[in-house]
Design a protein that fits this description.
5 strands; 126 residues; single chain; alpha+beta; binds adenosine monophosphate
């Protein structure tokens, strides 16, 4: 069900539970700022989710309240993951849903990394 993406942060959400190790994930990468794992319902041959270690509801929350170090560390982690997966050629797409109209479902900020086939136009017509 789509959610607002706004605080307060709900620490029972599924990605919070993955971060605490309560639920398994297919881990791709981890450092001080980010955890990356395969999406359970992939929409492309490569579909990785990258989440910050801190408790942020969405891009709106993260961009407004995370520290400079968290923003830099998280952004660099995304670039490194894509590079290490060999995706810079022929390319990839990043996507972050925020709030109800975007269909955000999990209220912990995450970036989708899609790759592995031509990805078409940016938005579906639906
Ligand atoms: P969003 O609509 O941007 O909030 O996307 C949430 C994503 O989380 C969806 O693509 C789901 O398939 C994915 N997802 C939900 N639960 C899990 C899980 N336990 N492990 C991996 N991915 C998940």
């Amino acid at each position: 069900m789509p959610i607002s993406g706004l605080p307060p942060y709900d620490d029972t959400n599924i990605f919070a539970r993955i971060l605490r190790g309560e639920i398994p994930c297919k881990k791709v990468y981890e450092d001080a700022w980010a955890l990356a794992f395969h999406d359970i319902n992939p929409q492309a041959p490569t579909h990785v989710l990258i989440i910050p270690k801190g408790n942020y509801c969405s891009f709106a929350d993260f961009s407004a309240t995370a520290t400079e170090a968290e923003i830099a560390g998280f952004t660099r982690a995304i670039g490194k993951i894509a590079r290490d997966l060999g995706l810079e050629q022929p390319g990839y797409r990043l996507l972050a849903n925020m709030g109800a109209d975007s269909n955000q479902e999990v209220p912990h900020y995450h970036v989708h990394l899609f790759a592995g086939r031509p990805l078409g136009r940016m938005l579906s017509s639906a």
